[in-house]
Amino acid sequence: MNVLHAIAGLLLLLLLSACTGAQSAFDTGGVEAERVLGMFWIMVVGAAVIWIFVIGLSCYVTRVSPRAVDDRIGIRLIIWGGCVFPTLVLAGLLFWGLGMMPELRRPADGPTIAVSGERFWWRVAYDVEGGPGVVRNLPPGGVPSANEIWLPVGQRSTILLGSPDVIHSFWAPSLAGKMDAIPGRVNRLVMEPTRTGVYNGVCAEFCGEAHAQMGFRVVVVSEQEYAAYVRAQAAPAAVTQGPGVDLFLRNGCAACHSVRGTTADGQIGPDLTHVASRRTIGAGLLPTTPENIAAFIRSTDHVKPGVEMPSFGMLPEAEVTAIAQWLGSLE
Amino acid sequence: MRLFGLYGRTQDTLWTLIAAPAIWGVHFLFSYFYAAYRCAPNADIFASIGGTRIVVGIATVAALVLIGLVFRRAWVEWQAKGGTVRHDRDTAEDREHFLEFSTVLLAALSFVAVAFDVMPVLLIGDCR
């Protein structure tokens, strides 16, 4: 029994530990997530009441007072308890849930940010102009970034979601519900963060081998900090000359990556102009340090199996280190 | 009109059985295709779709009335023969009772399903 108790205690602890943190729908930081959580608790309480009644009734008729029940009573119980009651409850829940949608999707007053789900990372562009729709792609332009989305607190920001390859789903559980990023159409998600902080997001639609390593961060800051951040992201790279730059260009990294201020203008992979200002590399995979950048360059497919970028293990150690040092300085 | 039992007793078949779910299916496809068609290319998501809501509303009333007639026919015939729920003998009469009772259940389900399908039209007035 003691072992069972210990296992039960451990499971309870694990369960409760999932209720807080940067990626928990129970630890909300946004209006939509708060509404969803409120709905969840009401449904949990309602479900518990129904469960207790059904189990109680079943115990009563089988243990406390076991006797034959008239057919008519049985059929009435099935019709009222099994058909009419669930239909009314579901109708009420559907009405309530649908009624929330126009309010959550009403026009936004904050910035418009384009987020493209790509195998297996998130292309981000701040301050784009455009809207949702079908048979179209995300609006071009804007201030490019990747895998980290900054939002001003208290404002309703529009996230325009698209994809050039397969269906992805953009989900930051603490802030809002999930929304699909679908090739050939632009979806709109409104996020209204209510407190500052760093939140985790994930791809919530299986998209291939590295689907589970396709994370992102959402950084919620004040309006002023947001404006300053976007201005800084729009500027060219902090260091545009030196051995790291030369090696980056000579080894062909610029075919896929951009570093504004240098001749590197590849568009296939993430923009690296301010890569060191982001908290993670590899789409939420590793903390941004020169050592981790070097490890990612050397054995990309080991760090992130399925990634499109090839490993550059053939490069001399000194060259990888120099490139990683340079990238690690690009704040 | 025989299907809806307006002229007395009818023979139940698989066609009478699936009539109500078929009406539900047609109503569902029509409502969602029509709303998608009217909203395409979905560029102006805040534009009102009052006309679309009215058309879907008319289709809903029509679907509910048709399902109601299917229900009524099956209900009347099922009740006329006692309204019992057990029909497991290998006879033509029991098969008929079984089909009538199943039609009653399916028509009730289809009625609720159509009402649920149409609820977004009540609450959402644009292409969001």
From TrEMBL, chain A:
It is found in: Membrane. GO terms for cellular component: membrane. The keyword Aminoacyl-tRNA synthetase does not apply. InterPro entries: CcO_II, CcO_II-like_C, Copper_CuA, Cupredoxin, CuRO_CcO_Caa3_II, Cyt_c-like_dom, Cyt_c-like_dom_sf. Residues 239-331 form the Cytochrome c domain. Gene3D superfamilies: Cupredoxins - blue copper proteins. Keywords: Copper, Electron transport, Heme, Iron, Membrane, Metal-binding, Signal, Transmembrane, Transmembrane helix, Transport. The chain crosses the membrane at residues 40-61, 73-98. It comes from the Bacteria. Residues 108-232 form the Cytochrome oxidase subunit II copper A binding domain. Its main location: membrane. One of its GO terms (biological process) is ATP synthesis coupled electron transport. It catalyses: 4 Fe(II)-[cytochrome c] + O2 + 8 H(+)(in) = 4 Fe(III)-[cytochrome c] + 2 H2O + 4 H(+)(out). Belongs to the cytochrome c oxidase subunit 2 family. This is Cytochrome c oxidase subunit 2. It comes from Fulvimarina manganoxydans.
UniProtKB/TrEMBL annotation, chain B:
Keywords: Membrane, Transmembrane, Transmembrane helix. The keyword Membrane applies. This is Uncharacterized protein. It comes from the Bacteria. The chain crosses the membrane at residues 12-33, 45-71, 104-125.
